[in-house]
Amino acid sequence: MRVLGLETSCDETAVAVYEGGRGLLGHRVYTQTDLHEVWGGVVPELASRDHVRRLLPMIRATLADAGIGAGEVEGIAYTAGPGLIGALLVGAAVGRSLAYAWGVPALGVHHLEGHLLAPRLEPEPPPFPYLALLVSGGHTMLVDVEGVGRYRVLGESLDDAAGEAFDKTAKLLGLPYPGGAKLARLAAGGRPGVYDFPRPMLDRPGFDFSFSGLKTAALLALKAAGPAAHADLARGFEEAIVETLAVKAGRALAATGREVLVVAGGVGANERLRARLAEVAARAGARTAYPRAEFCTDNAAMIALAGEARLAAGERAPLAVIARARWPLTELGPPGG
Length: 337
Fold this sequence. Notes:
- By secondary structure, the protein is α/β, with parallel strands linked by helices.
- The protein contains ten helices and ten strands.
């Protein structure tokens, strides 16, 4: 099927066209960073209003990029959750309304399923099954992926996500929003070993994460040290998160026996994390796989891909506009179920 995908779960407005058998025909992403920077974080109401302003013009432009007209769209997939409820409702309302007007089926897609399947947008996608480390501003999870809709959550963060901890600690260091990538750049100039922050929950069995205490440890260290130690502190903080993620991923590879570790989500772009995960995977006799950078962060290409698999299997959304701020990944089943 030729599917129009819409993504509005947070502060990116994204549109894509994906066709089964051919792949991605066109995609666009608009990031609201400048809008929210002055507030030091995403303001949900402002995000929703900006989605309203930008979504329809982006749909027209993306269809033009793909070289197709509205009459050639065979289905519409939109992010229905999890995410900011107001932002989700913009994409759901537009997607469901266009599908009704054009006489094509529509489907609400799980945002995290899009991330888990994003590597399949690559020319040589990793084969099923694989282990996925989903690490972003809103989520940190280890998921055993047996196929589309066949997910087993091995562990997840019990409080802050890794990306959230990066952003909040960057703010403590006086770095502008969004701060995660800026903290990584600051850490590059820091000295290793000056700060030895705790590696949360590595002394316990299992695959769950916790990063709120690490953030508190960074705050206390900052108060004691002052601005001169910012680079060293950033280095220690980054190393603690990277090591925690890497050790847990290594344990999951050993437990599942998977030969591919897929890393999805915006934090997956962190260079220190990539290098450490490559070491861990190699020791386990596995390899790492990533979506290209533009598909690590929120995008509609992954939503269109996931939606196409389910729409082609006969899944359909009701006429009602439905969005869910919280939506457990465990509620999903195989396409057509």
